[in-house]
Amino acid sequence: MNITGTIDRPLTHDPQKLAPMTSSASEPSGSATPAVTTIGANASRQNRTREMQLIPEALARAHMHQRQREAEAGRQAARLVAARRMQQRAERVSLRARRALAMAVMS
């Protein structure tokens, strides 16, 4: 089983041991961009900033926070609906009790 590293915990920090970057298949062979060499790949890897590497994680974290806020808003709305239902039920019970008391006093 081949274990690879993650952005947070790369398998190695040595650029010489990292796999070289290759040009994409969709790019024509005589394009304006030069062919990528191992030296260029190492230099570009070294020039990557930590912030750039953490962008996908930051996006995922922001998405999860948004989902949590939406879920909390949904729970709050459900609690409000339940509270209104209980209040209406209490009002009906109170009205029935009042009518029953009035009937008992009248008779």
Q: Which structural class matches the secondary elements?
A: mainly alpha
**Which regions are unreliable across 5 or more consecutive residues at pLDDT < 50?**
none
Counting H and I runs of at least 4 residues, what is the number of helices?
3
Q: What proportion of the residues is helical, as a percent range?
A: 55-70%
Strand content: under 5%
Number of strands: 0
Mean pLDDT: 79
What Rg, in angstroms, do the CA atoms define? Answer: 33 Å
Pattern of helices and strands? HHH
Descriptive overview:
The structure is a single chain. The termini are far apart. The chain has 107 residues and is mainly alpha-helical. 62% of the residues lie in helices and 0% in strands.
Topology:
Elements: H1 38-47, H2 50-53, H3 55-106
Keywords:
107 residues
Brief summary:
The protein is an all-alpha fold and 107 residues long. The protein is built from three helices and no strands. The chain is rod-shaped, with a radius of gyration of 33 Å.
